[in-house]
Amino acid sequence: MKSAVLTTAILLSIGAASAAPAPVADVTGGSNDERIARLERILKAKQQSEFQTQQRLDVLQQEVLDLRGLNEQQSYQIEQMLQRQRQLYDDIANLSAKPAQLPAVTSPSGGNASASSTLGETASYEHAVNLVLKQRKYDEAIPAFSDFIKQYPNSTYAANANYWLGQLLYNKGEFDSAKKAFETVVNQFTESNKRGDSLVKLGMIAEKTGNASSAKVYYQKVLKEYANSAAARIAKQQLAAL
To answer: Does the pLDDT value for residue 3 go beyond 50?
Structure first.
């Protein structure tokens, strides 16, 4: 009898244990829905980070393309100057052989100038540029560009010469003099491809001299007039940092 009762009790205990729901062990904490929600948030954050990274890469790639284009343009301009110089040397050689047939060359101002004066203009500009690019003699390049600008204020190289001068002075921290050079490009050479860059530099000078409001005006002008340029991207970055 006791054995039957014990057996019955054991069976009832087993049945009760089987009927009770087993507890769910969650090693990470929270329910399945909460874990899924956390995973979705992590995935969303990761996707957003990757998207932002791709955007930055796209901007950097475009800037590289713009710089490559500028480099190609400058290389072409330099090649054109070299060809002009070689032609002028040939002309001088021919004229030296026939001094009685010296032709007059019309200057941009309408007067007559000898071929040697034209050669002097090109050679003077190339000399100043070479002091920067080839010889790295930046202090010597400053008076070289200044002299060129004084002697040839209406030269086709005048805008670039003023920009070079402004950049060299800016690098030395001579902001007042640099500002005058960049303002010359902006105000007198409105068609120059250096005008947008000069506006950016004027903004940077305004920042460095504690005039944030003027800097903002310069940067906004770049964004308005040169919206798709490398100068505009720099101006946008500078504005965001103000």
So the answer is: no
Instruction: Say how far apart CA 101 and CA 216 lie, in whole Å.
Output: 58
State both tokens at 88: 């002028």
Residue owning tokens 């920042």: 207
Q: DSSP characters for 24-80?
A: PP-TTSS-HHHHHHHHHHHHHHHHHHHHHHHHHHHHHHHHHHHHHHHHHHHHHHHHH
Q: Model confidence over 29-51: pLDDT tens digits?
A: 567 888 888 888 888 888 888 88
Looking up tokens 């060299």 gives 168
Contacts of 166 (CB under 8 A, 6+ apart): 178, 179, 180, 181, 182, 185, 198, 201
Hey, which CATH number is domain 157-242, 1.25.40.10, 1.10.760.10, 3.40.47.10, 3.40.50.300? 1.25.40.10
Reference 163, options 134, 193, 135; nearest CA is 193
Output the average pLDDT for the chain.
Answer: 76
Per the DSSP assignment, residues forming a β-bridge with 105 are 113
pLDDT digits (tens, 9 = 90+) for 106-144: 333 343 333 334 448 889 999 999 999 899 999 999 999
Threshold 0.85, pTM exceeds: no
What's the CA dihedral at 164, 169, 175, 181 to 10 degrees? -30
Domain ranges of the chain: 68-137, 157-242
Residue 38 CA to residue 31 CA, distance in Å, equals 11
